[in-house]
Amino acid sequence: MQQHRTFPDKSIATNPLGNMTLNFSRSNRSQRVHIAFIAAIALASLSICSQTRADQWSQFRGDQANGVAETAHPANWSETENVAWTNPMRGEGWSCPVVWNDRVFLTEAVPSETNAESAGDNSNRAQGRDPSQKTYQWQVVCLDSKSGSELWRQTAREGRPVMERHSSNTYATETPVTDGKHVYAYFGMMGVYCFDMEGELVWQRDLGQYKMRAGWGTSSSPVLLNDKLFLQVDNEEQSFLVALDAATGEEVWRVARDEPSQYSSPIVWKNSLRTELIVGGTNYRSYDPQTGELLWQLNMQKGRSSATPLAIGDRLYVGTEYRNRGGSDDGGGFLFAIAPGGQGEIGTSEDSANDDFIVWKNPESGIQMASPVLCKGHLYLLERRSGVVHCINAETGEMAYEKRIPRARAFWASPWVMDDQVFCIDTNGTTFILAGGPEFDVVGKNEIDELTWSTPAIADGALYFRTASKLYCIRE
C-alpha cells in the first residue's frame, strides 16, 4: 500500500495552458476581463452536447459522468404513456440505476418491518435523525432491461445500521458502478461489495465507521477507472480518499483529507494533458489516480459540496453551494471553470483573476444539490428548493438567465441532456423540458406523481428513473 501526504511540494507548472480569465464581482455583474492569451486548445465541445455510449450507463450520471444521453428516449411520458414496465421497490434507496447491455442494476436497503417509513418526506428538509433500530438487508438487484423482471437479488449485508441518517436520506443512496464484468456497490459505513454479473459475491471490504455531520448519513458514489475503484470517505472524524484493486478489493493507496463531511462523488477527468481524479469539498482537489499524489487544489471558501463536478474536454466546472446558516461551512457559492495542467495551489475564491488555470469564476451561481449539465454551449444549474434554473455561458461564465420554472418544486435529482434539450425532474416526479441555449423556454412537461430524488439513467432508447415506490422504464 502506498501512502502520500495530503500536500506535496507546490511547484509551479512549467507549461500552463493559455486562457481567457474572467472575474465577476459578487456585488454586481460587471465584468473584469483579464486576457492572458487565447486558449491553445479550442472548446469545440462547448457548442454541442458531449456523448456517451448508447447501450450502457455504467455509473452515476453516465459513462462520462456528464448526464448526456446519446440514445434518444421518448420525450413524452406519464403514468400510462410510454411506460414499458415498472418494478416495485422493496426497500429504501435514492441510488440511481445503472445499465449494462440488457441488465439494470440498483441497490436497496430493505427494512425488516413491512410498514417501514418511506424514504424522504414531502417537506423535503425535515430535520431529525432516523429513530429506528430496524434490521436492514443491504441488497444489490439485477433486472432485465427489456421486461423489468428480476434476474437476481443478493443481500450484501444484514443487520442494524451503524450510523444515523437524515429523515430524507436513505441507507442506499450511493449509486453502484459496473464495468460489464462486475458490479460494485458501496453502502457508506456498511461497506463496499463486488459482485459478478450473475450475482456471486467476489469480495467485500469494510472501510470503517465514522460520524457524519448532524447524523445526515452518506451519499458519495464510487468511481471506476481501469483496475481501480475510488471512494471518497469524508466525515467528521477521519476523512480520506482510497483506491481499491477492483479485482481483489485490496487497498492500493490512501490519502488523508482535511475535509469535514461531504456528499459529492469523485469524477475522472480525461483531458488533453493527463487523466485526473477530481474530488469535491471545501477545497477542490485533483489527484493522480495511479498513485494518489495531489496534483492541485482550489480553495472554495467553504460552502457545501453535494453535487458532482462536470468535466467536458479541457474544461472542468466545479462549485459549492453558498451557505449562510451559522454553521462551520458558511461561505462558498462560487462556480469555476478550470483548464488542465494545474499544480499546487491554483487560486483562491477571493483572488484568482491572474491564475493561468482559472478560466473564469462566477460568485453568483454555486452548484447546489443537483449536478450541472452542459448543452449548446451553456451550463445549467438547478436550485434545490425554489425551482430556479441558472443558465451560464460555459465559455465566458456570464449568466444568460436565472428563471424560476413555473410550478416546479425542489430539485434534488440531477438534470440530463437529450437532443439539445435539458430535462429537470423535481421531487414531485414532474419533469420539465428546457430548450438548450441562452433563452429560457420550457418546451414540455411530463408528470408522474411520486416522490423522486434519484437521477435517471438513459441507455438503448430507454429512460430508467426511480421513485420512492418503484423503478420506471420509459420506452416507446
Please render the helix and strand layout as text.
Blueprint: E1 2-4, E2 20-24, E3 31-35, E4 56-57, E5 83-88, E6 98-100, E7 103-111, E8 136-144, E9 150-159, E10 177-178, E11 182-186, E12 192-196, E13 201-205, E14 223-225, E15 228-233, E16 240-245, E17 251-256, E18 267-270, E19 275-279, E20 283-287, E21 294-299, E22 310-312, E23 315-319, E24 335-338, E25 344-348, E26 358-362, E27 373-375, E28 378-382, E29 388-393, E30 399-404, E31 416-418, E32 421-425, E33 430-435, E34 442-447, E35 457-459, E36 462-466, E37 470-474
Parallel strand pairs: 1-17, 2-26, 21-25
Antiparallel strand pairs: 2-3, 4-6, 5-37, 6-7, 7-8, 8-9, 10-11, 11-12, 12-13, 14-15, 15-16, 16-17, 18-19, 19-20, 20-21, 22-23, 23-24, 24-26, 27-28, 28-29, 29-30, 31-32, 32-33, 33-34, 35-36, 36-37
CATH class of the domain at 54-116 and 131-224 and 456-475: Mainly Beta
The percentage of residues in β strands lies in: 35-45%
Helix- and strand-based class? mainly beta
- Shape call: globular
* First and last CA, distance: 50 Å
Radius of gyration (Å): 21 Å
Tell me the number of helical segments per DSSP (H or I, 4 or more residues long).
0
CATH architecture of the domain at 54-116 and 131-224 and 456-475: Beta Barrel
Q: Major sheet, described briefly?
A: 6 strands, mixed
In CATH, the topology of the domain at 54-116 and 131-224 and 456-475 is named: Thrombin, subunit H
Number of strands: 37
Helix % is under 10%
Round the mean pLDDT to the nearest integer and report it. Answer: 83
Could you list the spans in which at least 5 consecutive residues all have pLDDT below 50? 1-52, 115-128
How are the strands of the biggest sheet laid out side by side?
3-2-26-24-23-22
